Amino acid sequence: MGALRAPSALVRGYRAACRTYIDGSQRLDFVNDLAEDLSDGRLTIPQDTLARHGVTRTDVQAQDTPGVRALLRHLLQEARTALAASHCVTGFLPPANRPFVRALIALEEATADAAGAKGPGLLTAPARPAVSAMLKILIREYRHTRSLRRSRADRYDCTRPE
Fold first, then answer.
1. N or C terminus of the chain with fewer C-beta within 10 Å?
2. How many CB atoms lie within 10 A of CB 51?
3. Torsions phi, psi for 104 (to 5 deg)
């Protein structure tokens, strides 16, 4: 989270924006790590959330039921909502840090999309976005970084006539 550091840690709203990103990322991890957690005997889904979907711990351990599918959709939607809201954190950052943070959020959103596509398959293994999707995100933000560097270099190029 060090790269998220705003010019002033006291900027109003900055901590809340960081917290929103962390919340979305953690919610996604809880869903995407279900298979590993279940194999270790852990379940990070609150009991009241299971009950709202009519799902038991046993159901989550290996059953593809309508309730389990609805539960997974609900959990992923919570993660997506927080991740979408977390984009505001970039407005608090110096321009040079924005591409990195945008890439982090976009990679999390791509993982959420992959998890949604995998559905109940998450009960046996985590989801990963396609390499091509990840590369697209990274290349896009790398280009933003390069354009920022070029514009800064142009401002300070003492060899160019004014």
1. C
2. 10
3. -55, -50
User: pTM of the entire structure?
Assistant: 0.83
Cα distances (Å, whole numbers) of residue 152 to 7, 14, 143: 18, 25, 14
d(CA 113, CA 118): 9
Residue 20 near residue 86 (C-beta atoms within 8 A): yes
Q: Splitting the chain (162 residues) into consecutive groups of 10 residues, what average pLDDT does each group show?
A: 55 85 96 92 90 90 87 97 95 87 95 96 94 94 79 49 47
117 Cβ contact partners less than 8 Å away, ≥ 6 residues apart: 127
What length does the chain have? 162
Tokens of 159: 């060899």
Q: How many Cα atoms are found within 13 Å in the side-chain-facing hemisphere of 115?
A: 29
Closest by CA to 25, choosing from 93, 85, 95, is 85
Query: How far lies 69's CA from each of 60, 115, 121, 143, 152, in Å?
Result: 10, 12, 10, 38, 49
Q: Which of 71, 66, 32, 25 is nearest to 49 (CA)?
A: 71
Do 127 and 77 meet the contact criterion of CB atoms below 8 Å apart? no
